[in-house]
Amino acid sequence: MPTFFIGIRAPITCYDHLIKDPFKPIPVEERHLTLAYLGSLKKPKQQVYTKLQQLLARHEPQPFTLFFKQLQPYPSWKRIRYIAAIPQPCKQLQNLHQLLQYNFQDLLQDKWHTFSPHISIASTREKTTPSLQALVEKICKDASKDTCILKVRDLAFYVASGGRYVILRKFYLIQ
Known about the structure:
By secondary structure, this protein is of the alpha+beta class. The chain has a single domain (3-172), classed as Cyclic Phosphodiesterase, Chain: A. 24% of the residues lie in helices and 37% in strands. The protein contains 3 helices and 9 strands. Strand 4 (64-75) and strand 5 form a beta hairpin. The chain is globular and about 50 Å long. The protein starts with a strand and ends with a strand.
């Protein structure tokens, strides 16, 4: 069953050269930062489009820049499934997340109570072992030498189905 979410397109590739087997890079066109997970929708998609468009027009969030200076395993060191790029704290990102959480609270199906912004850049199906942890530790250490920059100019309404993420509609931030 397809699920839906609002997120930021995040085609960052500056850490891709660090990815090693058994990790596989997430396709660049599917990289994103989730802001509001809506799950399987009970309301028609058009209602979500309209609500999001009106919300952005009313609050006029400005484009902003995210800086990434670290990678970390996700969801945790004990259960590594992804390597994720973690943005530096950013007030605009936090405000946008809170705006969506408040205005879409009737649809939200987030299972995480704490907002942990991240962009998954690689995944594995391997079990977490000491050797996998050592590999991820080296990748994370090497990543700390690089800074990735993402200019956020729009939000996207996504559908997730069969392990794929597809943008249904983009919504541009006011410039």
